[in-house]
Amino acid sequence: MVTLPFAMVGSVWLLYLLGYNTSVAVWVGFIALAGLAVQTGIVMLVYIDEAVSRGLREGRMNSISDLNKAIIEGAVERVRPKMMTVSTMLLGLLPVMFGSATGSEVMRRIAAPMVGGLVTATFDTLLVVPALYGIYKTIQLKLK
Fold it and tell me: Among 9, 19, 82, 129, which lies 20 to 30 A Cα-Cα from 36?
């Protein structure tokens, strides 16, 4: 759930920069973004947790340095899929943001929160989630 505030911050920033007011369409974009942000955060945690569990099973988890190596190993496995997800979403949403056909006014307001939130949620998922996981596991495992 940590990814949600970061995603919403990016959404609000882009809405402010574009001068959009809140509407039903904007809230639909927020809801779609929330689902995507939570899903990518959960997938990142699954990959990191699997790498840490593998280290625990193999008896390699003796210090904070070992934990950090396992977290980096798990996070690195997720970088390419995460970047592919974000880039395909952005490539799909940018034409909607700049379209001028019938209904584009509404569609822009749905796409804007998603575009802004995807950018900030990406940084959150790749940087903040692994760091918070490391803090949590260090306390849980009582590593020194």
Answer: 19
Residue 14 Cα distances to 57, 68, 70, 115, angstroms: 45, 34, 35, 8
Distant-in-sequence contacts of 32-35, Cβ < 8 A, 24+ apart = 32/110, 32/113, 32/114, 33/7, 33/8, 33/113, 33/114, 33/117, 33/118, 33/121, 34/4, 34/7, 34/8
pLDDT in tens, 92-117: 998 888 888 888 888 999 999 999 99
Give the number of other CB atoms < 10 A from CB of residue 4. Answer: 17
- CATH for 111: 1.20.1640.10
